[in-house]
Amino acid sequence: MNAMQVAEGYFDAWNRRDAHAIVASFASGGTYSDPSAGENLRGDAIAAYAKGLWAAFPDLSFETVSAAENGAGLVAAQWIMRGTNSGSMFGLPPTGRSVTLPGADFIQVEGDRIRSVQGYFDSRAVPDQLGLQVTVQPHAIGPFSFGTSVAARTGKKTKPGAFSITQIEARSGDEVQQIKELSRRTAVDMLSMEGFIGWVGMTIGQRMMTVTAWEHPDNPRQLMRGGAHQEAMHQFFGPGLGGSAMTSVWIPERIGAMRVRCPACDRLLEAAKAEGKCECGATLPEAAGYW
Fewer Cβ atoms within 10 Å of its own Cβ: the N or the C terminal residue of the chain? Predict the structure, then answer.
């Protein structure tokens, strides 16, 4: 079996979604590297990476555009990966979108096995095609820490009468993902609850916080009647999820009036009093919600 045939068998195993065959195509200690997987995956780690891609893109396929062998066992192959995101990726629900990703592999073959695969592609292309944001930022600078956030809103303009705040410190990256999933499901539950206005979830390192706006201080009690929030509480107080946590309900002392700026004269007006019209006669833009 020559180097080109070994490479063809390797790509065929990917298209058959056969993790065992992919790993079997590598020599003992053979490595796989690409911009998403990282450097020098071996054995079971290669299989796990492949299975993760198939879970996110069950119809994943590779089309070989060109392939050439340099005579010393090195095969250079250009390919196009295609697939539909109908499974979870990065812990997020499926987008249902399809991706087309061009790339190249340099496959070093020794005998009838692969010694190494070095893949190259634009690591931002898949998130962009899925409509996902890609943010590059430091973990911390001096006293400032950086993270991510997500919001769920009903569109209500109601002034909040209470805020529920939850904070939990995860103990590992896996727990961060577990808590994110429970938080996402809780936010979905809250969208249909009486008095719910909006929700914001924040993750900074392994510290996670949610702030939820309600119309009345009694509204958060609905979270204790079942659903994802109660499941999360059982996990925290039961088998153990997170290292520490706090929940609370806050009643605002004062919330100022919502103001809106006139696009014609630049005057800043109280939205409720103006009732959509500026003193200059211009129509005011719709005011934002409080949360």
Answer: N
Cβ neighbours of residue 45 closer than 8 Å, sequence gap 6 or more:
none
CATH 3.10.450.50 matches 3-129: yes
174 SS3 class: helix
Q: How far is CA 97 from CA 36, 42, 58, 62, 87, in A?
A: 19, 30, 12, 17, 11
> Over the stretch 243-289, which tens digit does the pLDDT of each residue have?
999 999 999 999 999 999 999 999 999 999 999 999 999 999 999 98
Environment class of residue 58 by beta-carbon count within 10 Å: exposed (0-12), middle (13-18) or buried (19+)? middle
153 φ, ψ (degrees, to nearest 5): -130, 150
Question: 């103990």: which residue's tokens?
Answer: 171
Q: Which helix (H) or strand (E) holds 3?
A: helix 3-16
- pLDDT tens-digit series, residues 202-232: 999 899 999 999 999 999 999 988 888 888 8
What is the distance between the alpha carbons of residues 79 and 103, in angstroms, rounded to a whole number? 5
The residue ranges of every structural domain in the chain are 3-129, 145-250, 257-291
pLDDT at res. 21: 96
User: Is CATH 3.30.70.100 the right assignment for the domain spanning 145-250?
Assistant: yes
Helix (H) or strand (E) holding 182: helix 173-190
